[in-house]
Amino acid sequence: MARHEDLDWVRTVSAAGVVLLHTSSIYVSRYSQLTLLGVSPSLLANQITRFAVPVFFLLSGLGLGLSKRPMKLPDFWIYRLRKLAVPYVLWSLFYFLLDHHGDFLLHPQQGVLTFGALLLKGGAASHLWFLPVLLELYLLYPGLKWLMRRAPGWTLAVSFLVTLFCILALYVPLPLPRWLRPRLWRLFPPWIFYFVLGMAITEERLARIRELARKRALPLCAAAAALALIYSWDSVRCGNLESVKPQLLLYSPLCFLALLASWRICGKGAALPAFSAFASRHAMTVYFAHIFFIKLLRRWSFFNRSFLTLLLTFVLVYALSLLTAWVPELWSRYRRKKTAAV
User: Fold this and answer.
1) For 254-267, what is each residue's pLDDT tens digit?
2) pTM for the whole thing?
């Protein structure tokens, strides 16, 4: 698939949003004299970034929908497994050993079984649940693609209803097995709408969306900002700071449109487009690595004090996560040059 600078920008901001979301998690209950509509800056940062994970699912579906690469079904799954499953297993092992290396050395057999169970549900670290869900959606993709070709409107509508039902099931007593309710958000149904919505965006529709974003850039950005404040205030009022809420079904697609619209301004010049292309290319590594650096910095009390140290922690974590991706890339370039010289 050809690179799209505005989609790179959306992916870059979404990856940074995930980092800020997790960085701000320990600050949300801190008292602050500075508030906006009664919401502290730390809590505001935590809530306005809730669009990021749904937008990642949307971009994953969109990437598959725009792809023109002919690929047989087994090759498709092998490619996706190699691209996602291998780094997922390695990063899961890294986080598992980081937290349980003592137990693993004392009881290796039990450690292997525990790691296997955590691997299946994305439990080796708090953020890794995203990968098993994405792999589930990739497994469903051929069937979803078939349905989208024959009944795109119905497929999108049904996926919306499935996601809405699953979200509501977390808050109201709907007929679901008791064991499933607390695990539901770690499975694909609460996220399938965003993935299918991305699949529905063809090249022609993307061109129309870009035209809409170009003509209505200011209203879209203003609406996203207003909804971000309303969403944050409502989260405080209801005492619910979780990521799986019905409001996200509107907020996340609106943020996607607003980010596309903002590229009209942010994409001018050469520096930011170059950075955005680089950061977008390594967004998944940033996702994998950032929790490690958050844990590392939180060992020092200095990074647990105020909103200003939250911002400093965010900048450091994001920079270190990008560096984690950049070093192997530099090494790979060096090896290629060395091989070519020989």
Assistant:
1) 999 999 999 988 88
2) 0.91
